[in-house]
Design brief:
Blueprint: H1 2-8, H2 12-30, H3 39-46, H4 50-76, H5 79-98, H6 103-130, H7 138-167, H8 174-198, H9 205-208, H10 220-228, H11 230-249, H12 252-258, H13 264-292, H14 296-316, H15 323-344, H16 347-350, H17 358-369, H18 376-387, H19 391-419, H20 424-428
Helix pairs in contact: 2-6, 2-7, 2-8, 4-5, 4-6, 4-17, 5-6, 5-8, 6-17, 7-8, 7-13, 7-15, 11-14, 11-15, 11-17, 11-19, 12-13, 13-14, 13-15, 14-15, 14-19, 18-19
Length: 429
């Protein structure tokens, strides 16, 4: 037992690398999603309508499709170099945007964000995360990466908020917004320098492949193999179902206030606990349990099943329900969701997809798993606009159905593993 724990336990250096990978993830997506923090200031700076502002996220979301091809780049060439270029481009684009804030230029910059953040950065990020440790540590690694993303998100946005407040001397806070975005870029550059010295060169088998797999150049034939491999699609469905629940969680806040009659302050406080508190607990726990019991997909499936049950309970509780019950259900739902998020990107490792395909696989998994960005918020918004509070019934039903597909997918993964004897040799070892 102690030997198994030793395989899963991470070293201090691994924790440091994982923290900076989480910090890098935060700064890469800080400016593309800056409207989530500084919405009004961004609208004022760009002089655009709210619908036009939404197009920026749509442009960025199209980049998820690019990730499917960017993954091949990370497998064929040095993933560390591609990672550095991707983060560096994000920082440069952020600075250029800070000094040239107009809507036309923003369209170009957000297209650049999609290219650098999703085509270049994301597949390389997942591959480097996978190379941080042994295959038996993948769930623990990805779980802590997710948790540290949450920690870094709080730290980075508080720093940005400080600079926003300090420089927001104009009526609409445009100068403060510029300062916040430059702050994101500076933190990104510092993170880049740290990771340059922390991350070993991926092309070295002794450093990049703890499983001893030879590092071979990725070919088009290999990429086609990854596309047609059922393991890729099962991994993608695991992310799709988990991400759907993650997106749906943001609608709990208006549901509490509009339907259950909770106060805005109470709903907002619960949202903070759900977004940050449960992330710190759920993500590492889900990844660790997946490694402990050698089945990350089972953690995803069980977590989604738990989330389905809680969604049904949420729909059955009447207005005026005791606040303590709402708090408990919200925390447990958040923990289940983040347990699944902490394990979902390690499913390819569980299915023994070779590390040489890690970039291509993660790119395709991103394309499949994050495609809800292209439609889910528009769909949910449409239901709420047309049906009012009754739209929540459709939102929660849709989420439950998708999560049920995720549960069935986890069962399919177990059947596939048994049929192809995946994990048998490692278990014997």
């Amino acid at each position: 037992m102690s030997g198994e724990q030793e395989k899963i336990r991470l070293s201090i250096k691994q924790f440091v690398i994982i923290f900076f990978l989480g910090l890098g993830y935060t700064v890469v997506y800080a400016t593309p999603f800056v409207q989530y923090v500084f919405y009004d200031a961004l609208v004022s700076a760009l002089g655009c309508s709210q619908q036009e502002l939404g197009y920026l996220i749509t442009i960025f979301g199209v980049g998820n499709i690019l990730a499917a091809f960017g993954g091949m780049l990370s497998d064929r060439f040095n993933a560390k170099t591609i990672y550095m270029v991707g983060v560096g481009m994000i920082c440069i684009l952020s600075i250029l945007f800070a000094f040239n804030m107009n809507y036309t230029f923003a369209l170009i910059v957000w297209a650049g964000f999609a290219f650098s953040g999703l085509f270049l950065y994301f597949p390389a990020h997942i591959k480097l995360c996978r190379l941080v440790g042994h295959e038996r540590q993948q769930g623990t690694i990805f779980g802590f990466v997710e948790a540290f993303c949450g920690v870094a998100n709080v730290i980075v946005n508080f720093i940005a908020l400080y600079f926003f407040t300090k420089f927001a001397t104009d009526t609409y806070g445009v100068n403060g917004l510029k300062a916040a975005i430059i702050c994101y870029a500076v933190i990104g550059i510092i993170t880049l320098v740290c990771l340059y010295f922390l991350i070993p060169k991926p092309e070295s088998p002794s450093k990049s492949d703890a499983a001893g797999e030879p590092e071979e150049k990725m070919t088009v034939k290999d990429w086609v193999h990854v596309v047609t491999d059922p393991r890729t699609w099962m991994s993608g469905i695991a992310v799709f179902a988990t991400y759907t629940m993650y997106c749906t969680l943001s609608y709990y806040t208006p549901y509490f206030s509009n339907v259950l009659g909770a106060s805005v302050v109470f709903s907002g406080g619960l949202a903070i606990v759900r977004i940050y508190g449960t992330r710190f607990v759920g993500a590492p726990l889900g990844g660790w349990l997946g490694d402990k019991f050698r089945s990350l997909s089972a953690v995803v499936g069980i977590s989604l099943l738990g989330a389905i049950i809680l969604v049904v309970i949420f729909k059955s509780v009447p207005p005026g329900t005791d606040a303590t019950l709402l708090i408990i259900m919200t925390i447990v739902t958040g923990v289940f969701t983040y347990m699944a998020r902490g394990a979902m990107f390690a499913v390819p490792s569980e299915l023994e997809i070779p590390r040489k395909y890690a970039g291509s696989t993660s790119g395709l998994v991103c394309c499949i798993g994050y495609c809800p960005d292209l439609f889910i918020f528009v769909l949910y918004g449409y239901w709420l606009d047309v049906y009012g509070n009754a739209g929540f019934d459709r939102i929660f039903l849709f989420a439950a159905v998708v999560m049920a597909i995720g549960v069935l997918n986890s069962i399919a993964i177990q059947i596939y593993k048994r049929k192809h004897k995946i994990g048998k040799s490692s278990a014997a070892a």
